[in-house]
Amino acid sequence: MPLARLLHRTTAKHPRSLKQRDALIELTADLIERANLEVKETYRFQIDRQDIVIPNLPDDFHGFTIAQLSDIHHSPYLSLEHLTEAVTETNALRPDVIVLTGDYVTHTARYVEPCAECLGGLRARFGVFAVLGNHDVWVGASAVTQAFERHGIPVLHNTNLPLYIGGRFIYLCGLGDTTTRNHDLVAALKGTRRRDVRILLSHNPNIIKEASLAECDLVLSGHTHGGQVKLPVIGAPISYNRHGKQYTRGWAQMKKTQIYVNRGLGTIFLPIRYQCPPEISLLRLLRTPDQRPT
């Protein structure tokens, strides 16, 4: 029997239950409204901006911007339509470089090519660079790498490259996935020096301790989805990080090494986010906190 009809029959016999009926209707409407808001939040991308102060940053890189996308998980949970919207919003930021930090698909290789083709539409002054995540390895590291490179996105697998402005440079270092033990930090930093500015792309933020020992300046990661669900008081019930919840989302620091953990675009297990919207990051490199780019 429909709920409204049942309520009508009940209140017709028991007028005193009118208040109870109204309270139940109000509660039901509130729950439906909240559910609709959470479903919308799952696909409403949020642009988060963060300044990163690196004292030894070359002068020519002061104000340099990095857009970061992560954990797309293209699947029935995140469509090409939504991914195309994210690409458009990222391009509108006009970043100097775009980095992609893993987990582009989830369960099957049939999503690899459409995802790579869509991400091939990203544009930045210094290009677009990627590293792989655990799901990419499970689906097929070679297939993902080849698809990305066909669409103009180099995959940095335990290697690095310099980005030059006016004869000065910073290093972009790409690490293989740590969950599947495809990482080699020594190889990723080979040829760089501790006094060089080194930005490490690592899908999994668990690398923060090793990166800190190596004195990397900045680590850009994903993997955690920001917890995907953020509950009152306790925050994210699952952090996916052995070093603590402070490395689950956003900016943190371990000794001299800073880290930024992107919440990702897609979802895993269940297609829902709560108080944890999908994220497009825009990071701006500065020499000092009070010096703004001209």
Provide a descriptive summary of the structure in words.
With 294 residues, this protein is of the alpha/beta class. Helices cover 29% and strands 21% of the residues. It is built from seven helices and eleven strands. Residues 65-226 form the Calcineurin-like phosphoesterase domain.
List keywords for this structure.
single chain; 294 residues; 7 helices; 2 domains; 11 strands; Purple Acid Phosphatase, chain A, domain 2; Metallophosphoesterase_sf; disordered N terminus; six-stranded mixed β-sheet; alpha/beta
What is the element layout, followed by pairings?
Blueprint lengths: L2 H11 L4 H25 L3 E8 L11 E5 L10 H13 L4 E5 L10 H8 L8 E4 L2 H17 L8 E7 L2 E7 L10 H4 L9 E4 L6 H6 L4 E4 L28 E5 L2 E5 L17 E8 L8
Parallel strand pairs: 1-11, 2-3, 3-4, 6-7, 7-8, 8-10
Antiparallel strand pairs: 2-11, 5-6, 9-10
Helix pairs in contact: 3-4, 4-5
Protein name: Metallophosphoesterase
Keywords: Hydrolase, Metal-binding
Pfam families: Metallophos (PF00149)
